[in-house]
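Lecture notes, continued. The same structure-token format from the folding unit now serves as the input rather than the output. Read the line below as a description of shape only.
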């Protein structure tokens, strides 16, 4: 097997279901200034099991929530009593933001860093503090740590023979 093909295949397997590696540019923090991470991503052991499918970023009530990358608003509504907005990106990924009061309707194009909502205290994951729960969906039902869009990628080398 071609070593480059092996590298790409291993990379896709490590990310799950053939998802492309996270880009390392074009993404911005969804809160400004750069927030503290109150709770990190915790992948569930099985897709249906408990976990934390995003990160909680410390914010303040009424703080502008920004699109993490360019895309189109896919969903704006209320889920489980919390305001949610989802942005679909050109690579097929979606970023999710909650609890928010969404400022834009579904179908609205957005730029990276553009305000898409305001942060609300309603059912915050960090109560009594106010946090933005920010998620990254790379394929239907497949969540990844959204902070990986900021981390440099390090290749993993695997020997070709024994």
């Amino acid at each position: 097997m071609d070593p480059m093909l092996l590298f790409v295949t291993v990379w896709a397997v490590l990310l799950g279901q053939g998802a492309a590696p996270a880009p390392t540019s074009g993404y911005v923090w969804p809160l400004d200034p750069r927030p503290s991470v109150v709770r990190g991503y915790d992948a569930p052991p099985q897709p249906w099991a408990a976990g934390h499918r995003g990160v909680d970023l410390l914010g303040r009530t009424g703080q502008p929530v920004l699109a993490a990358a360019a895309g189109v608003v896919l969903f704006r509504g209320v889920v489980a009593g919390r305001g949610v907005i989802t942005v679909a990106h050109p690579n097929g990924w979606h970023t999710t933001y909650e609890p928010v009061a969404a400022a834009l309707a579904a179908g609205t194009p957005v730029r990276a860093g553009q305000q898409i909502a305001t942060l609300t205290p309603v059912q915050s994951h960090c109560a009594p503090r106010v946090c933005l729960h920010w998620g990254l969906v790379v394929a239907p039902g497949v969540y990844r740590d959204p902070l990986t869009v900021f981390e440099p990628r390090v290749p993993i080398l695997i020997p070709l023979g024994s």
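Point for the exam: The CA atoms of residues 101 and 118 lie 5 Å apart.
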